[in-house]
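SEVERITY: medium
COMPONENT: batch folding queue
REPORTER: lab tech (J.R.)

DESCRIPTION
The queue accepted two submissions in a row. Attaching both inputs and their returned structure tokens so the on-call engineer can compare them side by side.

ATTACHMENT 1
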Amino acid sequence: MEVDFIDNINEYGENVVRLFNFDKYEAIKFRDLIKDTIVKRKQKLILSQVDFIETHNCNLILGLFKTDEGIFSVDDKTFYCALTVEGYHNMLKLIEPFCVKDSKGYQYLYDIDNPTDFLFAPAATR
């Protein structure tokens, strides 16, 4: 599993942080990390510290927030995914199909009016 940031993906100046290049077993491990670290223990999840995730041009930190804000960054290097517990429960539902079987599909992990999307794309490459 890898994570990177792609700037200006369209004419609206939108961006994407993507988790990509993984199989169903890594999807299961990622899902379980969100459940255990964020939902149950209410702690932040720093992807650069996860042994099966390779970071490229960014680091992503997932954490709880009072409202669903999505992904933001101050420096385009460290990104924060700020969602409510309900937002992470929804994310877990969106990840679940990738835990059942290997897929070439993709899924955006939230639907928030925010300039940076969060893309979950197992078959994507660099």
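ATTACHMENT 2
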Amino acid sequence: METDELLINMGPVHPSTHGVLRFKLIMDGEIIRDCKVVMGYLHRGTEKLAEMKTYLQFIPYTDRLDYIAAMPNNYAYVRAVEELAGIEAPLRAEYIRVLTMELNRITNHLVFMGSLLLDLGASTPIMYGFREREKALQLYEMLCGARMTFSYMRVGGVREDLPEGFIPRLNEFIKDMEMRIVDYEQLINDNEIFLLRMKNIGVISAEEAINYGMTGPSLRGSGVNYDIRKLEPYSIYPDLDFKACVRKECDSYARYLVRIDEMKESLHILKQIADTIPAGEIITTQKYGIAPVTGAPTSVMPYFPRIFTPPEGEVYTRIEAPKGELGFYVVSDGTTKPYRVKIRSPSFCNLVAIPKMVVGLKIPDLIAAFGTIDVVLGDVDR
């Protein structure tokens, strides 16, 4: 029987597109013959706003890029500014930074797991994922008073030191989370319906993934051992014992397993930090010769100037964010505001590979494949 191809719009307000994303699907019956991704519904001009703010004022805007994992966005930006200005953060500050980022990697993957399973029709895992995420958010609230958008990183260090009792609470979270991951694996990994929905669905080879510019767990699920924490080590990562999580099956199931493996590695990193975090300052003052106030109470911390002028120049720095490579290109013209800021967001680059992954499949397969890419639309549209 001959059939006509039909154009179907999926989104931009479809619950399984995780925000305002639109797929234009050319359907031959139930089979996807072509897929076009339409972005831009959430565009806020973040990069242009950066040119109108001082270097410190722009930090809260970075929180709103990937609001599921805001700490790495804070860090990637301040690290670029530090490299531009020749500033080095104290060792204790770097330990705290990595602690907060790895904790955010876990919360990111918990949301990924829960929302993926919810898209596939299972309502229980998202309740479990948010249960553990709540405990992590309480740690953030204890640290800086915020739960999702932190504005915690500062050029030269961090805003607040670890409060009393934080490390014991962190150790409790680590111990509990290790048991919870075992529960997730028993509940999900060998579930017959889950395997049918995920295995050999959304397949993309290593070569194709590289050509599309994919990074992070989505790339490592295609067998490419590409983790910036290992390839271009930054902060204290060279001193930590962990491995890059890679799977070679190249399908949706492999991308899911990479995130489960990464949560285990992040817990391993958090253990090391909790056991070895050094004492010391949390923000540098050496660059500008600012000393603590003589005779001031011990609660008065050294500070970094809110408005400063880095030298003229340009820099591009990148980190391994939970969703992939996050890069900031910053240009200074010697004033108090950046001349140009360009963001290389992982969600945007991973999303463009979706059409390659879903042609020849059905719409439920598109939902499964898209869910394993783990995009946030604020990170895509900027």
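NOTES FROM REPORTER
The chain is about 45% helix and 10% strand.
No errors were logged for either attachment.
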